[in-house]
Design a protein that fits this description.
alpha+beta; five-stranded mixed beta sheet; about 65% helix; about 10% strand; elongated
């Protein structure tokens, strides 16, 4: 004999276990727990010899309460993740201006490496080679080249620090000019590509310039082959050099400038436009190859599941989970309770066949509670007149008023959603929704068998009674929406303040660096021009060496690493730079909530640390997508991360992980 108290304790224990699974484990594990609990409930009813209809009713009730318990645990899990994300975001907010300054330093370092350092390296190699060979014609040509290149270096340094924008057009005309003025005669150039988008041509220019500078620095006097060709919808850029000539030592003085950052910057640039870069030994020499798309890839990657579909697969564990669970609970309470309590007699199977679809039609609109609250409320209210008509026709013995009172919480949940989640443009009609619920409910109650006398008067009185909880629920939803709006406004104001502070810090940092470069590198560049104009090639070489040394000190200072970047979408750029990787921001940059920014940052961090050197970030209207090469170790952590955020995860056959972090209304 099973003690009576055990029938009350066991459901509480099972409910607590299901809630714990939903709170601390992933959605799939928690859903599996619900399935086990439903099976045990149905099995217990069968073991006790209950009839089939009671077994079905018990199973339905177990599904309903299990779904709600699962949804509550999931909501608590997502809420905890949002709170932790907000705390991390605000804790790191004071570091945002400093990180903006560091991002600016990285940008300036890359530009200095690509422009001024490249110019000075060419001057050093050309001047040293001419002086070593002691050929008057070569000396004259080296001086002319040094004067021209020095002026370009001065101009680039001024534009770099003053405007804060990349210098040069970077198109094929610039590339042709670069090859034409290159000081090394052992250079062969082949370009079959006639044109390319400006963004792609600029990256190709940077690849060739960096590779040529490295060839001068590490293999002076070697043969260099440059190719820019079109093939299979891609632009193929290659720079291959042979070992240097020991008789040429002009590049020795520039060997110390490089530190591996040039190729890292090129990888970031090629990844940003959807291309790829490889660099390494080839035969006895060195090769740098890039594949770039001939059309800029601006289309942002989609989410693992379409973020705009109301029935996306990720929704079953995301923001729609609570609404679907409420719909399941409403259906279980109405149908399951009727089956268990035998409210529908066995001898009236036609009545059951009528009521079950009506109960389902009344419950299912809860699944659209957040997305279409007005339409859902209208659909739920339309069931009451149908029940009333069925009762008047004698098709059912269930009073419409009793059914309305039993299921009134469905209308109240939808009324709350109208106030809390309804679109602002439709809220002016929201005041009519409590009146509509009151009118329909009053009519259903006034037509009940217990009402005698003047039914229209009873309808008015009962409608006023229903209007009280209906109006209060709708007003509460409005208050929640207003509070949410105030929080969003405060967060937007906070972001704007941080943005203005970061912009001021970047401007101050740029001014400081401009003063430093003017004192060092620009002074040496001007001295190079003056010495070259006077044909003092020894002074040109000395000033170029001193300029390279000054630039090296500036680059080392610019690349000093500070604290960890803040967990924001903008901080992913610095995170990628720290990991010698590349980030591509695809599409339009949009502001996101702290929970989305932090989750996207954590996903990018896992990909960069455990997957590959490249990550793509796309900001959509209702969330953010992060993708990149992943590994089995990172996959498990990524799944747990997006599960807590209510998002989605998928992995392609090539190992590319795609993460979707949705915006969730509290």
């Amino acid at each position: 004999m099973v003690p009576g108290w055990l029938w009350w304790v066991l459901p509480l224990i099972v409910t607590a276990a299901l809630y714990g699974l939903a709170l601390w484990r992933t959605a799939g594990v928690a859903a599996g727990g619900v399935a086990v609990a439903v099976a045990l409930s149905a099995g217990t009813a069968i073991a006790l010899g209950e009839p089939a209809r009671s077994v079905i009713g018990v199973a339905l009730l177990a599904v309903g309460f299990g779904a709600v318990t699962w949804a509550l645990g999931r909501a608590r899990r997502r809420g905890r993740a949002r709170r932790l994300a907000l705390a991390a975001y605000r804790a790191a907010a004071p570091d945002v201006p400093g990180v903006a300054a560091e991002v600016e330093r990285h940008r300036l370092a890359a530009e200095l490496h690509d422009t001024a350092a490249h110019r000075l390296t060419g001057i050093v190699v050309g001047s040293a080679s001419a002086l070593r060979l002691a050929d008057p014609a070569l000396v004259e040509e080296a001086a002319r080249h040094a004067a021209e290149t020095g002026r370009l270096a001065v101009e680039e340094l001024e534009r770099l620090t003053a405007a804060g924008t990349p210098v040069g057009r970077g198109d094929f005309a610039d590339l042709d000019a670069l090859i034409a003025t290159w000081p090394d005669p052992r250079l062969s150039y082949r370009r079959t590509a006639g044109s390319a988008p400006p963004e792609i041509a600029e990256v190709a220019y940077r690849v060739v310039r960096e590779a040529l500078t490295n060839a001068l620095r590490y293999a002076p006097g070697g043969d260099v082959r440059v190719g820019v060709e079109r093939g299979h919808g891609r632009l193929l850029v290659s720079v291959v050099n042979t070992p240097g000539d020991p008789a040429v030592n002009g590049g020795d003085v520039a060997r110390g400038l490089g530190g591996g950052h040039g190729l890292a910057g090129l990888r970031a640039a090629t990844a940003a436009c959807g291309g790829s870069l490889s660099a390494g030994p080839e035969g006895r020499g060195w090769a740098v190859r890039a594949e770039l798309p001939l059309a800029p890839e601006d289309r942002p990657p989609s989410a693992p599941y379409s973020p705009y579909s109301p029935f996306s697969p990720y929704e079953w564990r995301g923001r729609q989970a609570a609404d679907v669970a409420l719909a399941i609970l409403a259906l279980a309470l109405s149908v399951g309770t009727s089956l268990v309590t035998a409210d529908v007699p066995e001898e009236l199977p036609g009545e059951a066949a009528l009521l079950v679809p009506l109960f389902a039609a009344h419950a299912l609109p809860l699944a659209l509670r957040r997305r279409a609250p007005l339409a859902g409320l209208a659909a739920a209210l339309s069931v009451c007149p149908l029940l009333l008509a069925a009762g008047l026709a004698g098709w059912t013995t269930q009073p419409a008023g009793d059914v309305f009172l039993w299921c009134l919480w469905v209308e109240l949940a939808l009324l709350y959603a109208v106030g809390a989640y309804g679109r602002p443009a439709l809220r002016r009609w929201g005041a009519m929704t409590p009146a509509a619920v009151a009118a329909v409910g009053g009519l259903a109650l006034a037509c009940g068998p217990g009402i005698t006398g003047n039914r229209p008067a009873a309808w008015a009185v009962l409608a006023m009674g229903v209007a009280v909880p209906a109006t209060a629920t709708w007003a509460f939803g409005l208050a929640v929406a207003a509070r949410r709006g105030r929080r969003r406004t405060a967060m937007a104001r906070e972001r704007d303040l941080l943005g203005r502070e970061a912009a001021a810090v970047v401007l101050a940092e740029r001014s400081r660096l401009a003063a430093e470069l003017h004192r060092t590198a620009q002074r040496h560049a001007r001295a190079i021009v003056a010495a070259a104009d006077a044909r003092r090639l020894d002074d040109v070489l000395a000033e170029a060496r001193a300029g390279l040394a000054a630039l090296r000190e500036s680059l080392d200072e610019l690349r000093l690493q500070g604290d960890d970047p803040p967990p924001t979408i903008a901080g992913i750029a610095l995170l990628a730079a720290r990991h010698q990787g590349a980030v591509r921001y695809a599409g339009t940059r949009r502001a996101a909530s702290p929970s989305v920014e932090v989750a996207a940052f954590r996903a990018a961090e896992l990909i960069l640390r455990h997957g590959g050197p490249e990550v793509t970030v796309a900001c959509h209207a209702d969330g953010a997508a992060v993708s990149g090469p992943s590994s089995p170790g990172a996959e498990r952590r990524l799944r747990a991360l997006v599960d807590a955020a209510g998002g989605g995860f998928s992995q392609a056959e090539d190992g590319t992980a795609r993460v979707w972090i949705p915006e969730v209304l509290a």
